[in-house]
Amino acid sequence: MYPSPPIPVWDVTSAGTVISGDARPYLLVETNADGAAVRRFERNLPLARIPASECADSARALERRIDSLPVPITRPEVFGVPDDVKARRLPTDYPAYMAVFAAADGRVWVRRWPLAGRRDESVFDVFDGAARFLGTVIAPVRLAAGRHPVINRESLIV
């Protein structure tokens, strides 16, 4: 998995609300159509460190991509590039989570980065309809980052 800075994640609930967060802290907020916060999903977990070998691979890939530009990255026509990329700084920690999934039964599943040394698993924190943390589910398979699992009371289908 490529280390990346936190990016916005979101899902729409069956009630028509939106659960979203940027993974900077472990916090997701459910908002209604008026923009009012309905529920908050949060945990106090340390961020997982990105292994040095992965950081080194990413640094090499970033350098190759920057070197492939037809003009220097500092030129005005190269816009929208974050300062960290221009300075070739990569994150040292994974974001707090990588996705959120609202199940039809009201539960919310938050996908975290795999645990150290367990890259072939998928880790989900599960919250109930009142935003109480229920526990962590570890699926013994590595799901593609863009896949949306089907979740119901009895199973997680990937």
Layout: helices, strands, pairs:
Blueprint: E1 9-12, E2 18-21, E3 27-31, E4 37-42, H1 52-67, H2 83-86, E5 99-102, E6 108-112, E7 122-127, E8 133-139, E9 150-151, E10 156-157
Word description of this protein:
The protein has 158 residues and is of the alpha+beta class. It has 2 domains: 9-46 and 93-157, Beta Barrel (Lipocalin); 52-86. Helices cover 13% and strands 28% of the residues. The protein is built from 2 helices and 10 strands. The protein has helices spanning 52-67, 83-86, and strands at residues 9-12, 18-21, 27-31, 37-42, 99-102, 108-112, 122-127, 133-139, 150-151, 156-157. The chain has a 4-stranded antiparallel sheet, with no helix packed on it. It has a 4-stranded antiparallel sheet with strand order 5-6-7-8, with no helix packed on it. A two-stranded antiparallel ribbon has the order 9-10. The protein is globular. It starts with 8 loop residues before the first strand and ends with a strand. The mean pLDDT is 85.
